TrEMBL record:
UniProt-recorded name of the protein: Phosphotransferase system cellobiose-specific component IIC
Organism: Raoultella terrigena
Keyword list, A-Z: Membrane, Transferase, Transmembrane, Transmembrane helix
Membrane as UniProt keyword: yes
TM helices/strands, residue ranges: 35-54, 79-96
Domain of life: Bacteria
Gene Ontology molecular function: transferase activity
């Protein structure tokens, strides 16, 4: 078992690692990576908030906690949507700042 593992590690180190390193140094790949790193916290916060805003329960559930959560989210939907809209709005501003064009230029 350990010899198979050692062979696998050797193949990865000799063949795959140099190729992955070369691909990882390309400016397009690093741009995509940097974009995801920048946007990821906002996507996580926004996605997590959606679970609170739209609970994962059927409206006809009989579980008391789920019914209370559903009613709370219905009553306070506007206030709960503010942080979600804020996080997605900041992501939009980052995108617009990054992809702004010169006057008279079409995107």
């Amino acid at each position: 078992m350990s010899s198979l593992y050692a062979k696998l590690i050797a193949v990865i180190e000799q063949k795959i690692t140099p190729m992955a390193g070369a691909i990882g140094q390309q400016k397009y790949v690093t741009s995509i990576r940097d974009g995801f790193i920048t946007a990821l916290p906002f996507m996580i916060v926004g996605s997590f908030l959606l679970v609170f805003i739209f609970p994962p329960f059927s409206p006809d559930t009989s579980w008391g906690f789920a019914r209370a959560w559903l009613q709370f989210s219905l009553d306070h939907r506007e206030a709960l949507m503010l942080p979600f809209n804020f996080s997605m709005g900041i992501m939009t501003l980052f995108y617009c700042r990054r992809h702004r064009g010169k006057p008279g230029e079409t995107p």
